[in-house]
Task: structure prediction
Amino acid sequence: MANNYVITIARGFGSGGKEIASQVAKDLGIHCYENRILTLAAEYSGLDRSRFVEVDERLKGSRLITSLRELPRTISPKPEDRGFKSDTQLYHYEAEIIRQLADTESCVIVGKCADFVLKDRPHVYSFYIEAPRAYCLPRIMKKMNISEAEANRLISKTDKYRADYYKYYTGGNYWTNPVNYDLTLNSDRIGQENCIELIKQYVKMRESQYEDV
Result:
């Protein structure tokens, strides 16, 4: 695959989407970006407006990639234990980071409405990973060492936060609408390994179509 391509992964909390995204990136020899996009965007959005030109330069090419890769990755689950509140400036920087990543390298991007931000671009492949509560619940309980009741509460809160986030920044679109994605995968029914293989095969198939043109 000669062109830069981007794989976006949206996922229900506890479905294994982050692990799937990470392994897809590892298998394809590209980088996976998730929490680091938010961390870097938060740093930039907190700067004084007089420094916007400086920030814009730091959001380009190799400087952006270096800044992202210097930040630590979060492997453990990150639940949202709060209601969604919009922050347009923060989202602006998240979206700009996503666009610059797509311009610069092949990569996997988790969450952050990346499918919507990049929806009009070629070589972008978007996937939604979901699983029933019965599958997600024991995974979250084990990973976070919490009770069933607390895991239930955090799954509900986190998925609602993600749905509200997506709806607000996409102008009313629904987060789990399959039309938003190339494929919607149930990690309980087919397993994480098969999700990984399906994503890789799909991207390879779609990229080969560009080569045939």
